[in-house]
Structures are given as C-alpha cells and as structure tokens.
Write the structure tokens for this entry.
Amino acid sequence: MFDRRLVTHFDWVLLLTVCLLALTGVANLYSATSGWAPVGAPIYVKQMVWLSGGVVLALLLSCFDYRHLEYFSVVGYVLTVGLLLVVLVLGKTSMGATRWIALGPINLQPSEVIKIVMILLLARIFGRSAHPLGYSFYDLWRPALLLIVPVVLILKQPDLGTAMMLMFISVSMLVFAGLQRGTFYGLCAVAVSGLSGGWFFLHDYQKSRIRTFLNPEQDPLGSGYHIIQSKIAVGSGGFFGKGFLAGTQSQLSFLPERHTDFAFSVFAEEWGFAGCLLLLLLYLFLIVWGLYVSRRAADRFGMFLALGVTAMIFWHIVVNLGMVIGLLPVVGVPLPLFSYGGTSMVTTMIGVGLLMSVSMRRFKF
C-alpha cells in the first residue's frame, strides 16, 4: 500500500535532471532530422512519446517498494534469458543483426531489458552475502555463471556493444562489493587474456571497426567514414557552436546515424564547447546524484540496485562519447536520454524509476 509520507521524500532533483536531459535530446533530434521526410510521425515526435511513457513508468515504479523486486529477480532473469533465446530463433533482423522481437508496431529488444534484470539479480546476490574481507574467486562462481549466459546469447545476435555494457555494469557492482587482492589481480589477468583471445572470435565487421578505430583514414569513404565525419562535426563547433539548426555536417547529411549513435556530434557542432560542457555537467550531476542515492539507501539491496543503475548510465555515457570523438571503436552504444530509441529510453527510465524508489525509501517507516 502506498504511504503518503513518501510524497515528502519524492526525489524531484533526480526527475527534473532526467527530464531536462531528455528534452534537450528531443530538441537535438528535431535539429538532426529536420531535413528528413520520414514515413509516419517525425523521429523527435516518436522520441517524445517514448519519453512521456517512460516518465509515467518511472513515476509508477517510484510508488512501488523496490524491495519487493528482490523476490522476482530470479523469475525475471529466467524469462529474459528465454526471450534472448527466442530472438535467435524468431527475431527480426536489421543491418545484419538479429536483436529484436516484433510485437506489432513495437520492436522489443531483450538485450536492453536484461541490463535491468541483471542489476536486480546481482543486487540480490551482493545484498544478501556481505564479505567483510572481500569476495574470493570461489564466491564469484554463481554471479559469473549468471552473467556469462546472457553475454554469450547477446554476442550471438551479434551485439558486442550491449554485451560489453552488461559486463561493465556487473564488474562495477562487483568492485564496489569488495574483492580480495588476489581475486582482483586474477580478474585483471582474466580480462587481459579475454581481450587478447577474444579477437579470434569477433565477426569480420567487428574486427574492421577496431582497425578503423586505430586508423580511420585508411578507409575514409568506407568503415572510417563514421568516425571521421563525427570528429569533423565535433571539432567544427568551436567554442560557442554554429547555432541551432545550423550544423553543416548534420543539415547537409554528411554525418551518418546522427539521430542515434552520433546524436552528441550534432549537439557539439551546433552548441560548441560551451554547450557540451553544460550537457556533460548535467550528466555528471546525474551520476553523482545516483551514487548519493546509493549511499543513503536503507538496505544493501537498495544500495547495490542504485549503484547498478548508476553504473549502467555512466558506462553508456563513457562509451558513446568515446565513440563520437574517436577514443573508442564504434560499437553501437546510445547516449542515455539523448539518442533516439524506444527500448533504450524506456530501459533508462525504468532505471530512473528504481533510483527514485530507493531514494524515497531511504527512511524506514
């Protein structure tokens, strides 16, 4: 039953910060796609619909006691892994990847849903098993096994970016849970070995992206085109930018995927260094606030839940920005609340709703 006392603890700061970022993203999408003649509603209108639905969902989740989700995390994991298996058999294929389940006009992407489910499950595991001296290798066999299953299924789609995000989120939660020194060094050795040996299991297009990242000028009209045009857009913005609707790279259609993976490049060209600084400060505030919510949580499950959601948002920001400025290979990771995408927006807003639920219940009634 909803406790009216929770209203006094409603996290307006978190909600307003998220809405400000998302509305800035909608305006940026309007500029990025202003020259398009799409079939159906414009991209920015669709994003606004997803945002509105996401806000409603976040508000509903904030009214729900997050502690009840601990008991459904295992069932949610099994169901989502089942959906990942369905994707491999009956999934919708687009641009060489099979990542979606077509549900009428909606395309469901289970690999996005598994991020939230995995956060809930790891929060349950770490919340119930405190290790004052840190986790040993033996203690990690269960979370490692639970992580490997969806990662392998996602890599089969193939979707390297989402698989990386899932691993980054899980490792972040593990590091905050505490590791024994030997376990930490051992995991570092495993990571280095995995990166070295993983090259032989990558698809040809994934290897091409890494080679292009190292030297995009070797194929400026092919695989290096995205990175080169993105860096031109970001660099040409100068200090104050070219102005709203005045970015040449986006308005003249030189910049590809400007409504999804490279939405930040459009913003950087139009608003320059000053605008990017303000946007990044907003994102920084969101991350710091998420850690603040985690620290004030009423229990360990809430602490790890808030930490996992914050890590999810953080790593998406880091990888996307690294992509658009050429510091990381292009792996198809969207910028949270900014890039176009219904499933991505809803997943992020579910995370925000969980953060709000933890924040509102930091006091035990």
Summary: The mean pLDDT is 87. Strands lie at 92-94, 97-103, 106-108.
